[in-house]
Automatic annotation (TrEMBL):
<comment type="similarity">
    <text>Belongs to the cytochrome P450 family.</text>
</comment>
<keyword id="KW-0349">Heme</keyword>
<keyword id="KW-0479">Metal-binding</keyword>
<keyword id="KW-1133">Transmembrane helix</keyword>
<dbReference type="InterPro" id="IPR036396">
    <property type="entry name" value="Cyt_P450_sf"/>
</dbReference>
<keyword id="KW-0408">Iron</keyword>
<feature type="binding site" description="axial binding residue">
    <location>
        <position position="418"/>
    </location>
    <ligand>
        <name>heme</name>
    </ligand>
</feature>
<dbReference type="GO" id="GO:0016705">
    <property type="term" value="F:oxidoreductase activity, acting on paired donors, with incorporation or reduction of molecular oxygen"/>
</dbReference>
<dbReference type="InterPro" id="IPR017972">
    <property type="entry name" value="Cyt_P450_CS"/>
</dbReference>
<dbReference type="GO" id="GO:0020037">
    <property type="term" value="F:heme binding"/>
</dbReference>
<keyword id="KW-0560">Oxidoreductase</keyword>
<comment type="pathway">
    <text>Secondary metabolite biosynthesis.</text>
</comment>
<dbReference type="InterPro" id="IPR002401">
    <property type="entry name" value="Cyt_P450_E_grp-I"/>
</dbReference>
<keyword id="KW-0472">Membrane</keyword>
<dbReference type="Pfam" id="PF00067">
    <property type="entry name" value="p450"/>
</dbReference>
<dbReference type="GO" id="GO:0005506">
    <property type="term" value="F:iron ion binding"/>
</dbReference>
<dbReference type="InterPro" id="IPR050364">
    <property type="entry name" value="Cytochrome_P450_fung"/>
</dbReference>
Length: 491
């Protein structure tokens, strides 16, 4: 019977006994290899094995909807790893939690602050941070990534903990940044033996060859600091009765009503730390892609600017209230998510039951990966998908075309879809509109006066960001400089 079921796996590259496809699985930019396997085997779903683990990769929106949405009760779990979940403390992160009552409680609490009708409350804060970004770009026109990072991090810490940060050497931003970075370090470090032999977690750090255990302890401290340091500041303000209302104070209001106060407080710590962890790198990566696209496609910059000048004029900056009247800016934002998704394979899902799809057998415990890259570059959905072309989302009259699919796969799938996507879309939209209203984005010049040519090269890993991004923000006019200075002075 087992043999019969094995024959019913979707097609995929041939593997070896015991190790499976260990030696022919891609080492970097795996979304590209999975996309070509899908073409080679003529299937929207492919299968391979890593040791005893079954991996399925889905590369069409139809199959993704069928599995992740229609069968979300089976396809919403996450793989648990000793290094990530137990030794370094990432079990607190909703995005990595197994599909359980604990995940549901965390997601419900987080969602109430980031659902579409809650997000407008953060518009004033986002607007102030975007204005500060414009001023920072005037003063340091070559540091766009640094400015994006500060904008996204500062907005998040303000909304979640009511903590005001400084652009340089802010102790809380440093702690948050370090903690969030260490997840990428763990993922990029590859596989740890302790994940295959969990008993190794009991080996003491001083044991010869257990250097990984010492590294795990360092990571653990950083993850703890990311969770506790900002929370302690917000909690102290709450206890003193002087706190500015924020997500933490709102959650702490529920503490007295909770049956298990310790457990509730732990949930508050996890939920509040989540926005920085899940929202900063994703937003910064996407905005860096915007900059790259603007270097390659100056005509898109010009079209965006023309729309802003026509609708908003030059005497004020675009606001989120202008969204309906600036469809081209919305189309640019969507195209950024589609052209180079920040997480080209989202976060892998895991099945909790045996399943069957189109005659194929998908065993319980399989990893099922949505190949967002392939789905968003599917030529049957998006013509000439390699081109950055916001107009694909517009009708011939220039309004948003409801028949062109939104690149929602950039935010993942089914019940695990990004909870912060409405907030993310607003912060991205406002940044795109404001930056293009007052700046030209140009290639930068090196110390010898030579233009640094932009390249479409991306990093590999959980996140995929433009490599060594260099660009310069040039104010469009003296009036634009004056406008930025006056807006920042006002706010
Ligand atoms: C452009 C920015 C962003 C992108 C591209 C993005 C993308 C994603 C993706 C691909 C996933 C995995 C979905 C899956 O497993 O199928 C995810 C999960 C998540 N995102 Fe985002 N995200 C962004 C911004 C944000 C922001 C700003 C927040 C918070 C304020 C946030 C909070 C979350 C959370 C909490 C999860 C975990 C959901 C779960 O596992 O149940 N994200 N995001």
């Amino acid at each position: 019977r087992i043999q019969k079921r094995k024959d019913r796996f979707p097609p995929g590259p041939p593997g070896l006994p015991v190790v499976g496809n260990l030696f022919n699985s891609p080492k970097g930019h795996s979304w590209l290899a999975y996309q070509s396997w899908s073409t080679l085997y003529g299937s929207d779903i492919i299968h391979f094995k890593l040791f005893s683990n079954h991996v399925f990769v889905v590369s069409s929106s139809t199959v993704a909807k069928e599995l992740f949405e229609k069968r979300s009760n089976i396809y919403s779990d996450r793989h648990q790893k000793v290094m990530v979940h137990e030794l370094t403390g990432w079990d607190r992160n909703l995005a990595l939690m197994s599909y359980s009552e604990r995940w549901r409680t965390h997601r419900r609490h987080f969602h109430q602050y980031f659902r579409p009708d809650a997000v407008p409350a953060y518009h004033p804060c986002i607007t102030t941070e975007v204005h500060k970004l414009l001023a920072a770009a005037l003063d340091a026109p070559n540091d766009c990534i640094k400015h994006f990072r500060y904008m996204a991090g500062s907005a998040t810490l303000n909304i979640v903990y009511a903590i005001e940060t400084q652009p340089e050497d802010d102790p809380i931003l440093i702690v948050a940044e370090r903690g969030a970075q260490c997840l990428s370090e763990i993922v990029n470090a590859g596989s740890f033996l302790v994940d295959s032999v969990p008993a190794l977690k009991y080996v003491p750090g001083w044991f010869p060859g257990a250097g990984w255990k010492k590294q795990a302890a360092v990571w653990r401290e950083q993850v703890d600091a990311l969770h506790f340091r900002p929370f302690e500041i917000a909690k102290a303000a709450y206890d003193s009765g002087n706190a500015k209302p924020c997500i933490t104070t709102s959650l702490l209001d529920g503490l007295n009503k909770s049956a298990d106060k310790k457990e509730y407080e732990q949930m508050v710590i996890n939920v509040t730390a989540l926005a920085y962890q899940a929202g900063t790198d994703t937003t910064v990566t996407s905005l860096t892609t915007l900059v790259l696209a603007m270097l390659f496609y100056p005509e898109v910059q010009a079209a965006a600017r023309a729309e802003i000048d026509r609708v908003v004029g030059c005497d004020r900056l675009p606001e989120l209230g202008d969204k309906e009247s600036l469809p081209y800016i919305t189309a640019v934002t969507k195209e950024v998510l589609r052209w180079h998704p920040a997480l080209p394979l989202a976060v892998p899902h895991r099945t909790i039951e045996d399943d069957e799809y189109q005659g194929y057998f998908i065993p319980k415990g399989s990893l099922v990966i949505g190949n967002t890259w392939a789905i968003l570059r599917d030529p049957s959905r998006y013509a000439n998908p390699e081109m950055f072309n916001p107009s694909r989302f517009l009708t011939s009259e220039g309004t948003l075309d409801p028949d062109v699919p939104d690149p929602t796969e950039g935010f993942g799938y089914g019940r695990r879809i990004c909870v912060g996507r409405h907030f993310a879309m607003d912060i991205m939209w406002l940044t795109v509109a404001n930056v293009l209203a007052v700046f030209e984005i140009n290639e930068s010049v090196d110390a010898f006066g030579r233009v640094v040519k932009a390249r479409e090269e991306y990093t590999t890993g959980l996140f995929s960001a433009p490599k060594d991004m260099k660009a310069t923000f040039k104010p469009r006019s003296a009036a634009a400089v004056k406008l930025i200075r006056s807006v920042v002075a006002e706010s």
